[in-house]
Structure formats: structure tokens, C-alpha cells
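User: Study the chain.
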Amino acid sequence: MSDKLNELKNRMAEISDLDFAAAVLGWDRETYMPPGASETRGQVLATLGRLSHEKFTSDEVGKLFDELSGEAKDWDDDSDEARMIKIGKRDYERRTKVPSAMIEERTKISNAANDAWRKARQDDNFSLFEPHLEKVMDFNRRYAELFKPWDHVYDALLEDYEPGMKTVDVQTIFDGIRPTQVALLEAIADQPQVDDSVLHKHYPTAGQIQSGDEVTRMFGFNYDNGRQDAVHHPFMTNLGYGDIRITYRVDEQFLPTYLMAIFHEAGHGLYEMGIPKEKFRTSLYGGTSLAIHESQSRLWENLVGRSRPFWEFYLPKLKKIFPEQVGSISVEDFYNAVNKVEPSMIRVEADEATYNMHIMLRMEIEIGLMEGSMAVKDLPEIWNSRMQSYLGITPANNAEGVLQDVHWSFGGVGYFPTYALGNLVSAQLWEKMAEDMPNRDEQIAKGDFSNILGWLTEKVYQHGRKYDPQELVENITGERINGDAYIRYLQNKFGEIYGL
């Protein structure tokens, strides 16, 4: 290994340490930090973000990337070292366009916005969040200007979450699946509705967490290297190799709020746990994109956790935890219940057939805000109107409407499309896995998830950021990201449940 490569690795390791220190403080902010510490915590996070950015975008790091890019021409293009230089230089070239002062500014804006969002959601008062969202959007417009020329202003934001994906690419994919999804929803609406009353009984928190802990361990989540904690809005975060945190919220009157969310976050965690230690503190550590990350959370939550074989296996165990609530229900009725299709207000609790409609709505709003064709002050009305148009329902208040998601409060504009893209990728991977593992459903019905985890580790997890998302999906499935497999999955599954 060359001295220059060693020097670059050492510099990247130091920068990674700063980022992980910030991640620890960010996780604590969402879980245990007393509310009075918010302002000072924001200052600390802003300083760490600025220091990390300045170290990464230094002239010395740029010179190392330039020199090593020349050396890498003689390396195996598919080696970790060659990819480390390629991915790292791409990150460097992007980040050097952003002044360090803007990194600090973004952290301070999002810290204040997150505090305001929490209060606004709690009080159902959009006006408390409105001025902060104005600042978030103003920042994002100025941020996008740094990356001109682009085909669309939204491209600059999408690139941060889904490298190589353009706005028109996502719109084309969404336009391709929307008519079929709408037709499916209309067909389902004409059929007798399934009974999901079993999910709306009283489920004490302790039993729910016992169940979630049990299942996620079976999936392969290692609690020697992770933990779960309660938050306002569930998420997963990586605090460094061997330290993966997943979070949840509980509704004692609706079981899926916790159970499906913990399956979901564990899926994110399994991805991070599957990245080899040798990639830690390098540009190859972490998930390759948010769509690929989301494909893993949705795969474990839905394709495994909402499957008939899973409930054939796990319902008897759930009955031991909640004998009064589920003791008399059949596997078929419980399976139908957890897969009930019904338009709902809350994105994170939406069923598989309606979920993408929530994402399309959010993307359209974000594009409107970035283009200037929509104003922040009008968002509650716009949101409600589009919910009625897309799903036939109107939020009763802003807390279950425009204020339900945390993403805009931390500046995450361009993030939402990756959720729907992750759904599509999950189905593409699932189809390929079935070809490679014909007895997969039988294994799930026996509570054996090891081969699923092994397949995903081999095909996805072990690579970290080595391959771009489209490249990774094509390497595994032979196709780029598209909606065909997902549409087949929805039609087959819900066609059976609803007798279509």
C-alpha cells in the first residue's frame, strides 16, 4: 500500500471520527437529552460539522485524491482501493462546492427547526413551524445554486441522497407505476374490507417491546452491537462500527405502530451491521444510497414481516405474549389484518398499496417549494387538498397532516423519493432471491432467517458504498431500478387477499 493511500486513509479516519461523535450527540438529542440543552447542543453539532467539512475539503485531501486517482489507473477497477478513491473523490468534489459557513448555518437552522416542529406538532399549530420551514427552504435553494448547472433545481438535493438519480428519472418511474397503483386501489375499494379489529385492542408496551426484541434477534440484529430506544419519530443511526441504534414509538391501541416500525428500523440496522470492519472509517463505509437502505428496511418489514409464512411461524409466539388479544384468531385472519389496504393519514403506518402515494405527494410539494410555485404558508391547504385527491381522505388537523414527518425540520428536502424507490428495489431483490433460494418461504415459516440475511449480506451489505445504487441493483438483478417487480408483487399479494 502506498504512503499516499495510507495518509488518505488516516485523514478519512479522523474525519469519520468527528462525524460519529456528531452522530452520538444527534442520537442523544432525539432520545435522552433534556430539552433545555437544545441550543447549546446545536452549537456543538454545528462546530463538529464545520470541522469535519473543513478537514475533508482541505487542499491536502484534494491533492491526495488527485495523485491517487492517477495511481488508481493501474489498479483493478473493482478493488476496494480503486473504489475508495473514486467514491471519495466524488464526495470531495461535491463538498468543496459548499462553504464551511453554510455547513454550520444548516446545523443551526435545522436544530431550531426541529425544536419548533416538535412544539408545532404537539400543539397542532403550523404557524410555529412556518418561519423555520421558510428558512429551511431558503437554505436549500441557496444550496442548490452551488451545484449549477443542473437540469432541475431538485436534482441538486436528490443527489445527496440518491447519487446519479435525476428528478426526471424519478418522475418517469413514478408516472409508470401510479396508474396501476391507482387502479389496484380502486379495485380493492370495490371488495369487502378485511377485518383488522384484532390490531386495535389494548397491547401493553412491555409486551410489544418483548415481541419486537424477540423477532429482531431472530432476523439477526445483534444486541451486543445495538439497542432500541423510544423517540417521537423512529429512525436508525450508526454511531460507529459495532454500535447501531434503532428507535421506536408505541401506540398501545394499535400494534403495528411499534411492531412494523421496529422490523423496519432493524432492517436498516442489519444493513449497517453487515458492512465489513475493514471499510470502517473509509469512504466505503455506510449504505450506498437511501433507496438501497430503504429497500432493506421495507424488505424486512413488509416482504418478510407482513408475509403469510412469517405469521404462520410467529403468531403462536405472539399468542403467548398477548393471549387475550390474539389467542383465538387464525393465521389467515391475522395475515389479512396486517395487510389491510385502506387510505390513512400517517405515512409510516400506511399499507403497502397506498404507501407510494404518500411519497409522490411529498415529492410534488418539495418540487413546488423549490421551484417557487408553492409557498410555505399555503402548505396545510395544499397538503389536505392533495391527500383528498390522491387517497380520498382529508386530515382532521395539521398534526396528522403537514406536520407528521420530521424530515423537513432537519432540512431533508430530496429525501422522500428514496422511500418509494426503496419499495421498488426491495421487490426486485425479493424476486431475484426467490430464484436463488426456492425454499425461502418454507424457511421463513420455520423461523429460519439466516439464509435471507446471508443472501443480503453477500449481495448488498458487504459492499457498503463500493457500488453506486443503480450499479448495485443491476449487478444483482440484471436491471436498473424500476417498478415492474413491485407492481407484480402488489397485484399478486392483494389480488389474493381481496379476491381480485
The chain has 21 helices and three strands. The longest strand covers residues 226-230.
